[in-house]
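Human:
I keep going back and forth on a fold encoding question. Comparing notes only helps if you start from a blank page. Show me how you would write down a chain together with its backbone fold. Write it directly below this note and I will take it from there.

Assistant:
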Amino acid sequence: MTEKPWAFTPPSAPQGQIIPRRVTIETIGGICNLRCPMCPISTPTKKVRGIMTMELFEKIINDLSPHNGEVEMMDLFGLGEPFLDQLMSRRIRYAKKHGFRNIGFSSNMALFNLSREKQEEMLESGIDTIIFSIDGATAPIYEAIRVNGRLEKTVANCLQMIALRNEGNYQTRFLVRFVRQETNAHEEKAFLEFWEHRIDRARRDFLGVLPAHSWGSLEVGINRDDTLEKTACPFPFQVMYILADGQVTYCCEDWSEGKYNFGNVANDNTIAIFNSPKFGTVRKLHLDGKKNNLPMCKHCTVPYTEAGKYFK
């Protein structure tokens, strides 16, 4: 079993200034080559779609840089395909230059023009982790879920990037991920067997099988646990979510609509927003066992996914 890349740590009452342990920056929002049923990217929304400017990205990194030792992980993705962000390798190099570690993103790896040169550029940026999001072992199942994708091309892109990593001895590790749904659950075993023979465990590659959860457009049925329902979720305490236009939102449950607005990093200091009275109100509800008073939390299944051990 490979160590899970993010530890689900129950929060306690905050003391003094809170520094996010994990920062998620959506550098490209609402722009993707695929249309997957478990992704809310097509949900009608007033949220601004687009690509974060480099100037805004640099401000975020500059704001956070005094705390780079406390920020344990940085995700550079949200609702969008990172390889469509032409500034991505430049962003990674900038964050690395400022001392940030465990930088990664999730990609569908399905672009038909994902060239060798583009892949090498990404590896040379120093990115730590790339998630390959592939949810099928056969073309009919994969292409029904990853709409507009072609399994043969996606697999070829992934294998090429693994080979380039190995040949160049880059330190990037790969997570090949399978989001389990009714339509693909029967292919899980075949998926794991195929990719186990293509990743490199010695280079810290690993596999992940996660159940679909409520942030997508699928209806997700689970057996709710009263204890977990009343337990504070760690996300508002430990993870900061920044949308492509700079808006700070609640968590990944609010990626598609951006209903919660705690401020904008273009106008205020990033850490100051994370410590704002608005965030304090949300955290108190969680600590008081009343998180389900928040509409965003009431039907959320993310804590069930995060609390489980789904990485292999």
